[in-house]
């Protein structure tokens, strides 16, 4: 278990569930700190997380980023809009489809990685983590981290974990952070230098990329799209802005996807009936000639959609409060005057568990998404694993592509079972900013699937994004 997992365990146990319990007890408006109020009703989602919102990201985001800040932490509306427009092009559906062959190489590596381990417990959290880092490394740095190929954890990942621990300490215990920063102890200094090492890694990778492929490489990755992108005045990003932004994208696009895949496969291991339903659905897809599905083949499969939606509902990778700052003059929310600069937030862990909107909220029930007519407007609003509005996930299309292609490819080939070390307790969902299982691992056993499965009714299907 990495120190990141230890830290998440220490911090996450309290916040996520405590806020959830407070809402269950006191209703949709709860004061959770001297200057912070948490909400849980859908009317407030529109206030805080819409395209027109005047609630900007709270100051806490300042501590989450390297400098110069990337899109994720930009708090100024104009600056953010401009960066978002510039980057959106790279994330368009057609550009993403262009990257498929690169992603496919890594899914093939995943199959090769798993093959010799069939019938034995494999830590799927580490496996999916390495896979998702390899993919975003390939797409945004022009080179894979080779996590699935190397026995040791790549240096970048270790430094990234350290960076998150530091960001967490800075956000929650700033005084302790500044005291630690002054300590002349070699190990502590090394720990603090992790952020700089990551930036250097990004810089080196970027320079290698330009030296190898040039500035208009035509390579089917996303870095080339970021390099040639221009802002409204026609200016490109500087090299420093590119490799810092790209490092942020690597963070944003890796642990999110791997945590989702981990919980998804854990849920499937606990619910073999849904494995069978999904495999039956996958058997109806004509292609998959070389073992890896194309996105086009699996983009609109109702059971696959329903299973992923339900995993994202129960275990969203970013389950916690997304804090925003009340604009000047203050605002009335739920009939209460909230003074300006008060931090206001919602956590999707709670909106996803509203019992009136999602009956039996703790149960894994993919069927709630299967009949499109039964998916209510309230479900669509309260379901926000990728957040909503102008600050919603920029990588949502990439995330969906990875989740669908990887889940379909693995599930068609393999059955998944729980290893004895994997229990509800070991998988207890802890949040730091991103979520993790309490044990820091998820051991599952994969075995070859029979080529024919009993077919079951796959339902009508919907896709909620
Ligand atoms: C299952 C996978 C993912 C989930 C659940 C997820 C979730 C989220 C959430 C909840 C936010 C809002 C955070 C906030 O307001 O503080 C966000 C923002 C963001 N995500 Fe994702 N994400 C996923 C995958 C990705 C991927 C693959 C990328 C691409 C590299 C990505 C890039 C971003 C970026 C750039 C932002 C900031 C957008 C902005 O502020 O304009 N995400 N994501």
Automatic annotation (TrEMBL):
Xref: InterPro entries: Cyt_P450, Cyt_P450_CS, Cyt_P450_E_grp-I, Cyt_P450_sf, Cytochrome_P450_monoxygenase
**PROSITE patterns given for it?**
CYTOCHROME_P450
Which sites bind heme? 393
Cofactor requirement: heme
Q: Which GO terms describe its molecular function?
A: heme binding; iron ion binding; monooxygenase activity; oxidoreductase activity, acting on paired donors, with incorporation or reduction of molecular oxygen
What keywords are annotated for this sequence in UniProt?
Heme, Iron, Metal-binding, Monooxygenase, Oxidoreductase
Q: Which SUPFAM superfamilies match?
A: Cytochrome P450
Keyword Cell membrane attached: no
Cite the Gene3D superfamilies for this sequence.
Answer: Cytochrome P450
Family designation: Belongs to the cytochrome P450 family.
In Swiss-Prot or TrEMBL terms, this protein is called Cytochrome P450 oxidoreductase
């Amino acid at each position: 278990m990495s120190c990141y997992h230890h830290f998440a365990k220490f911090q996450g146990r309290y916040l996520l569930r405590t806020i959830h319990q407070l809402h269950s007890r006191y209703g949709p408006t709860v004061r959770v700190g001297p200057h912070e109020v948490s909400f849980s009703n859908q009317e407030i989602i529109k206030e805080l997380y819409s395209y027109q919102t005047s609630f900007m990201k709270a100051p806490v985001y300042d501590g989450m980023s390297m400098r110069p800040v990337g899109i994720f932490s930009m708090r100024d509306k104009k600056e953010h809009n401009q960066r978002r427009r510039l980057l959106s092009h790279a994330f368009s559906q057609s550009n993403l489809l262009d990257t498929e062959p690169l992603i496919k190489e890594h899914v093939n590596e995943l199959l090769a990685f798993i093959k010799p381990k069939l019938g034995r417990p494999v830590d799927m959290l580490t496996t999916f983590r390495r896979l998702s880092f390899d993919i975003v490394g390939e797409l945004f740095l022009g080179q894979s981290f080779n996590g699935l190929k190397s026995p040791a954890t790549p240096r970048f990942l270790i430094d990234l974990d350290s960076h998150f621990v530091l960001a967490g300490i800075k956000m929650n215990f700033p005084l302790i952070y500044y005291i630690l920063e002054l300590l002349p102890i070699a190990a502590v200094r090394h720990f603090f230098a992790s952020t700089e090492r990551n930036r250097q890694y990004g810089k080196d990778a970027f320079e290698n990329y330009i030296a190898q492929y040039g500035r208009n490489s035509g390579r089917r990755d996303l870095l080339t799209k970021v390099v040639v992108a221009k802002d409204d005045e026609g200016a490109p990003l500087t090299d420093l802005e590119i490799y810092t932004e790209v490092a942020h994208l690597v963070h944003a696009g890796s642990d999110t996807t791997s945590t989702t895949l981990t919980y998804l496969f854990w849920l499937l291991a606990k619910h073999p009936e849904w494995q069978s339903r999904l495999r039956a659905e996958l058997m109806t897809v004509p292609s998959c000639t070389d073992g890896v599905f194309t996105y086009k083949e699996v983009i609109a499969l109702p059971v696959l959609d329903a299973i992923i939606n339900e995993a994202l509902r129960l275990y969203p990778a970013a389950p916690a409060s997304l804090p925003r700052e009340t604009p000047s003059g203050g605002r009335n929310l739920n009939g209460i005057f909230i003074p300006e600069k008060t931090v206001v937030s919602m956590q999707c862990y709670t909106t996803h568990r509203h019992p009136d909107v999602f009956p039996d909220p703790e149960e894994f029930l993919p069927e709630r998404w299967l009949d499109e007519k039964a998916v209510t407007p309230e479900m669509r609003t309260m379901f926000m694993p990728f957040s909503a509005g102008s600050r919603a996930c920029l990588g949502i299309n990439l995330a969906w592509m990875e989740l669908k292609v990887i889940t379909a490819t693995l599930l068609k080939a393999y059955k998944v079972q729980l290893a004895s070390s994997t229990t509800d307790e070991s998988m207890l969902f802890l949040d730091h900013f991103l979520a993790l299982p309490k044990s820091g691992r998820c051991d599952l056993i994969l075995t070859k699937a029979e080529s024919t499965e009993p077919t079951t009714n796959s339902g009508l299907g919907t896709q909620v994004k």
